[in-house]
Amino acid sequence: MSPIVLVHGAWGGAWIWRDVLPALRAAGHAVHAVTLTGDGERAHLRHAGITLRTHIADVVGLVEAEELSDVALVGHSYGGQVITGAADALAGRIRQLVYVDAMVPLPGEGWGGAHPPEVVAARKAAAAAHDNALPPPDPADFGLSGPKRDWLLRRQVPHPFGPYREPLPFDADRWRALPRAFIDCNRPAYPTIDGSRRRVREQGDWTIVELPTGHCPMVSMPAEFTRALLGLLR
Predict the structure, then answer these.
(1) What CATH number does residue 16 fall under?
(2) Catalytic hit among 2, 69, 77, 145
(3) 34-67: buried (b, 16+ CB within 10 Å) or exposed (e) per residue?
(4) How many angstroms separate the most distant Cα atoms in the chain?
(5) Known catalytic membership, residue 77
(6) Counting beta carbons within 10 angstroms of the beta carbon of residue 78, is it exposed (0 to 12), middle (13 to 18) or buried (19 or more)?
(7) Which of 210, 187, 190 is nearest to 200 (CA)?
(8) How far is CA 77 from CA 17, 69, 82, in A?
């Protein structure tokens, strides 16, 4: 079976996939969860010079170090930017892309490229006030409550802000040649993903799966999310 590389979103880390790793591995997949530089247990490495290229290099480095090929890249939220760039850098070694309620960029577009101006302004101001890092939101914004909300509150860390407006050039034709799927988590729908939800439907060549949960399905509905992901893997 194809190896799976899981890429978390902003404020996260490899830890966020905890509840889905056993089932994915039990299904026979070799699963690798990346922690991006400056996030999760690598928060001590955060500095102002971290860029989107840094995070792409994290993924590329794992694939190369583990000598992986025929890889399914799975990106959550901001991780959609990262897997897009990593797939471009790893041409010939990627089997498919799965975007989990994630950013879906156009060539040359940055992470914040599809965000409304008021969101961009608010995030820039927040990062400027927090040493060029974006402070985490309340997980209630992701539809989480109780112990699951508390778990994210304990684990989330400020996310490096350098990648926010950094353009991502990539070969659009090569990207479109890959099988691509989008897991749309829309109860409640996280507003900054609205542009990607529209985009995948407008482009018309995506496999789209809807889950009736919030922005972090690997936390809120791990069993259902795992089934959906396994159903998408080729």
Answers:
(1) 3.40.50.1820
(2) 77
(3) bbbbbbbebbeebeeebebebbbbbbbebbeeee
(4) 46
(5) yes
(6) buried
(7) 210
(8) 13, 24, 10
Which amino acid, residue 133?
Answer: A
Contact at 8 Å (CB) between 127 and 158? Answer: no
Give residue-wise pLDDT tens across range 70-115.
999 999 999 999 999 999 999 999 999 999 999 999 999 988 877 7
pLDDT in tens, 132-163: 999 999 999 999 999 999 999 999 999 999 99
Domain hosting residue 164, numbered range: 4-232
What are residue 180's DSSP bridge partners?
97
The model's pTM:
0.96
Q: Is 28 left (phi over 0), alpha (psi -120 to 50) or beta?
A: left
Number of folded domains that form the chain: 1
